[in-house]
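[step 3/7] fold_predict: job queued, chain A
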Amino acid sequence: MAVSRIKVNGTFIDVTGVRQDMQREGIALTPQNGSRRFALRAVKSTWELSGENVSAADIAVLKTAYSLGSTFTFIDETNTSHTVLCMDEPLSITTNMQEMDLSAMYYDFTMTVTEA
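[step 4/7] structure written:
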């Protein structure tokens, strides 16, 4: 059962797993009096997306987004749109051999996207 969808160039792809990590971006400051401060610039999210039994056409869309390095829209489980891009983490694709038939092949994938 899909819990979320990503949208890449107008194509919706069902995602079966989503893990969100939030990171604060800024500079830690320690003045001479010892009172620590943090100059917060932004809070950015990173999502690890995984999908099961995805068609070859959807895998081609994911490969294109990963290869180009351009931003695309991720729609989370609360139907909120985020502009994201792929950074250094790999796009992992595996063939689901148990779900294969003679007419189609399905894939499992894991992809990490970062808020732009």
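[step 5/7] annotate
Residues 4-115 form one domain.
The helical segments are 56-68.
exit 0
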